[in-house]
């Protein structure tokens, strides 16, 4: 469910930003666990719309190159509160997102991260979440997600607070290497 219509990466924009040549020219390396930018809270973005859209394009290209379903600006070294949630091709850009509500029902699930390559963890996440944010045009919106959608919203907003999913593990025993015949469940 969406309240207000979020600015989305869809149609011709998605096609252009996913094109191999665009990705090659605009994708940045994904920062990995231990990089200081990933472990401190991000800042409020104060960019003109054109610069904001250019940053979102680089984020999206970086996410496409890394085969992710979401990305936060700190993952490409930019300490700003901007996230892309792309579960099922949603293409939602959330600026200064906040989690307004989560379901009481939780589920243990596997989770991976573009910034923790080669591993996945088992952790509990709420099955539902409600996020509110501003879009690229400065308009407020709210969305609700269930299961993987909720997980991605929570995961990306965690990044903006300087947290990684591995910070939520009960113990390091809940962190597992990805075997060559597996793919990470969530790469966000």
Which helices and strands, and how do they pair?
Elements: E1 2-3, H1 11-18, H2 20-26, H3 49-65, E2 70-72, E3 82-85, E4 92-102, E5 106-112, E6 119-126, E7 128-134, E8 140-146, H4 148-160, E9 175-177
Antiparallel strand pairs: 1-8, 2-3, 3-4, 4-7, 5-6, 6-9, 7-8
How would you portray this structure in words?
- The protein has 188 residues and is an alpha+beta fold.
- It has a single domain (2-177), classed as Peptide Deformylase.
- It is built from 4 helices and 9 strands.
- The protein has helices spanning 11-18, 20-26, 49-65, 148-160; strands spanning 2-3, 70-72, 82-85, 92-102, 106-112, 119-126, 128-134, 140-146, 175-177.
- It has a 6-stranded antiparallel sheet, with helices on both faces. Strands 5-6-9 form a 3-stranded antiparallel sheet.
- Strand 3 (82-85) and strand 4 (92-102) form a beta hairpin.
- Helix 2 crosses helix 3 (49-65).
- The mean pLDDT is 94.
Could you give a quick summary of the protein structure above?
The protein has 188 residues and is α+β, with helices and mostly antiparallel strands.
The string of secondary-structure elements, in order, is: EHHHEEEEEEEHE
Give the amount of beta strand, in percent.
25-35%
Number of domains: 1
Tell me the name of the CATH homologous superfamily.
Answer: Peptide deformylase
The main sheet comes to: 6 strands, antiparallel
Shape annotation: globular
* CA(first)-CA(last) distance: 21 Å
Helicity level: 10-25%
Overall CATH architecture: Alpha-Beta Complex
Uncertain residue segments: none
- The whole-angstrom Rg is 15 Å
Query: Major sheet: order of its strands?
Result: 1-8-7-4-3-2
| Mean pLDDT over all positions | 94
Number of helices: 4
Determine and state the CATH class: Alpha Beta
Derived structural class: alpha+beta
**How many DSSP E strands?**
9
CATH topology: Peptide Deformylase
